[in-house]
Amino acid sequence: IIPFFRFDPTTLGYTHDYRHGTNIPGFWPGNKYEFGLISYQKRGFLKDRQFGDDIEALNAHGILSSFSWLFSLANFQGFTTYNDITYPLVTQTVCTNGQFWSFFTFQLNTILMCMNNIYENPKKNVCWASKSDLKLFDSVDDNGKVIGLNDEVIKLLCKMYMNEPKVRQGLDLKPYLGQEQYVANYKDEEKRTWLENTYKHYMANKPRQRLVPEVYHWEKIYKIDHKRRPQDPLIQPFEIGKNPLMRRLNEHLPAYWPKKLRPDGPKSKKK
């Protein structure tokens, strides 16, 4: 039985931040190589940990890395947290620093995580992990000779590369996508250009053109906590009940054009 964790991640010390929900598997939509075989992850972060739970942290790193890659691959096939995957996705993950190796195989069976699906979804994702500290070699002498080579680690790595992917026959891999499937297939040039530029802009997570409105200390004291400035105009987001982070695409500021480049601007007219 797979245990279910019912607590908020913040209880474990995780923090949260606001950003665009980027979910890219390492390539843009339309690439002919749509699925991955093996991903490699570093494990150097264990050097700075002082909690004595390196094995658990390494397993969590392998699980999260595998899930995030498969989840983004599933999104590129048209599946979302509302439209569950119709076939499982499998990947292999290797966490290593060159000497110590850990191997993971992850099977993604569901991505339904909205509303009550967290508790009522009968499907579960499964991950198989090797021993967390498989040592490839003991040391390397001054002459560059490897001492104590472990053949079992090499065998496990070769097994992963020998797992040849198979093409699924008679199965629609993108059942929820329309006829176009990709932005590049849109016939309307204006729509195609806008979609591609907007998508890549948000997926890049570049710094915002206009920063999030800041609540100053005096506003917190005199406007929020004690209501002592009724004469001031209500212009701040917290005064008008608007969340500045809850914006739609049509509410974002367009790109800034200098006056001399504006097609109908006063400085663009011929004198």
Automatic annotation (TrEMBL):
User: What GO terms in the biological process aspect are recorded for it?
Assistant: translation
Classify the main location. Answer: mitochondrion
InterPro entries in alphabetical order: Ribosomal_mL37/mL65, Ribosomal_mL65
User: Does this UniProt record's set of keywords contain Mitochondrion?
Assistant: yes
Where does this protein reside within or beyond the cell?
A: Mitochondrion
* One of the record's GO cellular component terms: mitochondrial large ribosomal subunit
Gene Ontology molecular function terms on file: structural constituent of ribosome
Q: Which UniProt keywords apply?
A: Mitochondrion, Ribonucleoprotein, Ribosomal protein
Q: What is this protein called?
A: Uncharacterized protein
Species name? Cuerna arida
